[in-house]
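re: ur question from earlier - yeah i can do the single chain one, its not a big deal. heres the input i used so u can compare w yours
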Amino acid sequence: MKKIRLAFLHEYLPFGGVEQHILQLCRHLDRSRFSITLLLSRLGGPMMPLFEELGIPIEIFPVAPVPGPSNLPASLALIERLKEFSC
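and the output i got, formated as tokens:
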């Protein structure tokens, strides 16, 4: 059976409700059925070690929250990466 690929797209990993939710999904989804990747716009946050302990791949795409020409390379790279998760 082919694994279902999941990408969680988030800014970074502070202690918060959304981050807790993603962490619980990563802990409880069946890894034999799901391949999980965490895509962040910046590295860091106090919850990062918890994801690393689970062996969740983390990729950084430094897309700034304000649109502009400096965002273009990172935005295009993120779009290309997200295409890999589509059916």
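Residues 20 and 68 are 31 Å apart (CA to CA). not sure if urs matches, ping me
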